[in-house]
Amino acid sequence: MTGSNGKTTTTEWLGHVLAGAGLRVSVAGNVGYPFCLAVIDNPYPDWFVLEISSYQLETADTFRPAGAAVLNLTPDHLQRHGDMEGYRNAKARIFANQHSEDLVVLNSDDPESLPLLGRTAGLESLFSLKREVRNGADCLEGTITIANEGVRTPLMNSSALSLRGRHNLENALAVICLAGKAGVGAGALEGGLSNFGGVPHRIETVRVLDGVTWVNDSKSTNQDSLKVALESFDKPVILIAGGLSKKTPYAVLHDLVSRRVREIILIGDATEELALAWDGAAPMHRAGDMKGAVSIARSIAGQGDIVLLSPACASFDQYENFERRGEHFRALVEALK
Fold it and tell me: For the chain, what is the mean pLDDT?
């Protein structure tokens, strides 16, 4: 599993579905459990389910997955890969060694992923929220459907998915495509898609206090993941953002921020960059650090509001990683009275 956004959730979700179908599964890779250690700990599962980053793929010369997915491609890590073509080529290495019986899953709605079509020797399976696919999975008018050589089999209603948001509907379709490669039947698919609890730091509700919902999306390390988070809510959002800038055009989110965010609280090194990018979108507060941000949010949030930590930046200016950032936010919120 690779892509710009959704990798961890989709990897863990696939592992959950396979395990629910009675298969022995080891989930590893960029989720925080090294593949090399997983092989030592459990060398003979039915399936390894791996999250792979573009950095790891750069040096993957012999890696050959039986099924591989590129979930989406948006500008990220360009300081390393140079441009989108370099980034796309790094991601494409996930299926470079595949054979004709192997599977590659691609997002047919994602313009940056479309150039990957036809670049693998394996079987191509597509997922879409906009159109019917011949092979793969799609969701039109709320019905998730599996397609096999044009034969369409309805699976479930999208409202039954356990995770909210359009992005998670796309993630679910990718899970369906890959789980099919493992031979998972419709019943196990529906069960696993409807009872998965999600993963920490990904639009994770921490608590509801005095009618205010506090949400930890510390995994949001770029502007596209912030976009996904904001589009997941239909209530007023108090946004905590900032950290170490990814030097991407944050201003493209100005209109979305103005529509979805009631007030902005900025932290970290990117404070002034984000303040300039979102000038006029919503009232702004410069908190400096997480403790200050939570304090400000507590003082301004009212009944029905959502306080959303979705930084759109890396964490390394103030934290070891995004997990530490999310854990600090959670601890501060849980301590509120």
Answer: 94
